[in-house]
Amino acid sequence: MCTLEKRGSLFVITLTSEDDEQHRLNPTLLSSLLNALSQLNSQVTAGTALVTVAHGKFFSNGFDFRWAQAASDQDGARHRLRHMSDSLRPVVAALLSLPIPTIAAVSGHAAAAGAILAMAHDYVLMRGDRGVIYMPEVDLGITLPDYFSAVARAKISSATAARDVLLRGVKIRAKEGMEIGIVHSAHDGAESTVEAAMRLGAELASRKRIGDAYAEIRKSLYPEVCAVLGLTTKSIVSKI
Amino acid sequence: MCSLEKRGNVWLLTLTGESQHRFNPDLIQSLLSNLSHLASQATASSVLITTANGGYFSTGFDLGWAGAAGTHSAFDRLSFMVDSLKPVAAALMSLPMPTIAAVNGHATAAGFLVAICHDYILMRSDHGVLYMPEVNLGLPMPDYFAAVMRSKIRSPTALRDVMLGGVKVKAAEAVKMGIVDSAHDSAEKTVEAAMRLGEEFAQKKWVGEVYAEIRKSLYPDACKVLGLTQKSIVSKI
């Protein structure tokens, strides 16, 4: 499950660990995330930012394969996999169209759909002493939903790095994440990562940027992702 | 012509002979039939390495063959070769196994394109350049050439230098530009390094069909131009 709270100028979404310390994205967690983002969207004002954090050693270990495999047969498992993939899509779309800066504090492993969730934020801060971001689908023998590849292509700075992440399943530590453009900064531990995320969030919030313009500029940065997610751009928004 | 042999898990496709391995209709046909054969023989530990004998990987389309027909027919012959190579590029981009080009010498024009259609490029550093001469020759760039280059080279300056600047890129420079994965002292060492990388991939036992789908999802623009479509979810769970 996840919680949404307001701390000063920041909205904080926390992936909590009471049900699953790996924060696997099953229908319950996915609908909880989507709810939190819609709620946030209805309360948002200029001068705020979102920080997403997770308790424990995992940011998120991706879709809940246990739930998929608990289906009665292989068709059922695929159907459940498809269901989770379809349910994460609006979460990623909501993050990409949120009218405030978004920061993920990755304090542990972010794998597969968990890595996509992290990368869907504007800034990823990551602990440097442990934890990896990686896409294990090639090793698991599962293809990627279209928006996964689109997000990875949009956020990873070079074609060879994107190939290494998607087609070779390499595990990316914080420092390597900075080299390939997906991690903004690396920190000593989980706590320092979250603190740095809060500081960055507060700093970005203090700029009081116009939300509509912020969201439109973000979408214009990632046109292929937006096309895949069905996000359209609005015509010119201006305060002058 | 080219030969295909299996060494352990690795399939080695070699452009044979000491020539420049220019792509004329015969060589293109030979490449295509070898790749089709390979796709049908693929198993979970298969890997393709493509290399060539001598000091050239390939210098691209056989302009000599095109010109031998007289000016009037030269354009038709060139168009024919451009059309014939397209399924070769498509076969490489959809091959259900990892692919490595061991570039043993000059890879220019269509020769460069064939190299960059592989997942990884290893290149010798003591000899040979990667080079797209079309801008210098006044030749148009076929749509799928440009689409593949754009998909594989994402740095705008590197792409401009290759396509619009017609720069000749040696292995060390190509590594810096993100085009080549590693540079090696000689042709032999390049092939050896490719074999090691190939054996490493073979151990992963990747599911070929899934591997090909993930590759296609990495290069959607190139795949669109090459007429390759994406399949919906494929999963072994």
TrEMBL record, chain A:
Pathways per UniProt: Lipid metabolism; fatty acid beta-oxidation
Pfam families: ECH_1
Hydrolase among keywords: no
EC number of the protein: 5.3.3.8
Catalytic activity: a (3Z)-enoyl-CoA = a 4-saturated (2E)-enoyl-CoA; a (3E)-enoyl-CoA = a 4-saturated (2E)-enoyl-CoA
Cellular component aspect of the GO annotation: peroxisome
Keyword Lipid metabolism: yes
Annotated keywords: Lipid metabolism
GO molecular function term, any single one: delta(3)-delta(2)-enoyl-CoA isomerase activity
Biological-process GO terms, alphabetical: fatty acid beta-oxidation
Family under the similarity heading: Belongs to the enoyl-CoA hydratase/isomerase family.
Protein name: Delta(3)-Delta(2)-enoyl-CoA isomerase
Organism from which the protein derives: Clitoria ternatea
UniProtKB/TrEMBL annotation, chain B:
Entry's Gene Ontology molecular function annotations: delta(3)-delta(2)-enoyl-CoA isomerase activity
Top-rank EC class of the record's enzyme: isomerase
Coiled coil spans: none
Domain of life the protein comes from: Eukaryota
Pfam families: ECH_1 (PF00378)
Catalytic activity: a (3Z)-enoyl-CoA = a 4-saturated (2E)-enoyl-CoA; a (3E)-enoyl-CoA = a 4-saturated (2E)-enoyl-CoA
EC number: 5.3.3.8
Keyword Signal carried by entry: no
SUPFAM superfamilies listed in its UniProt record: ClpP/crotonase (SSF52096)
Pathway annotation: Lipid metabolism; fatty acid beta-oxidation
A biological process from GO: fatty acid beta-oxidation
UniProt keywords, alphabetically: Lipid metabolism
Entry-linked InterPro entries: ClpP/crotonase-like_dom_sf, Enoyl-CoA_hydra/iso
Any single GO CC term annotated in Swiss-Prot or TrEMBL for this entry: peroxisome
Family designation: Belongs to the enoyl-CoA hydratase/isomerase family.
Name under which the protein is recorded: Delta(3)-Delta(2)-enoyl-CoA isomerase
Organism the protein comes from: Clitoria ternatea
Taxonomy of the source species: Eukaryota, Viridiplantae, Streptophyta, Embryophyta, Tracheophyta
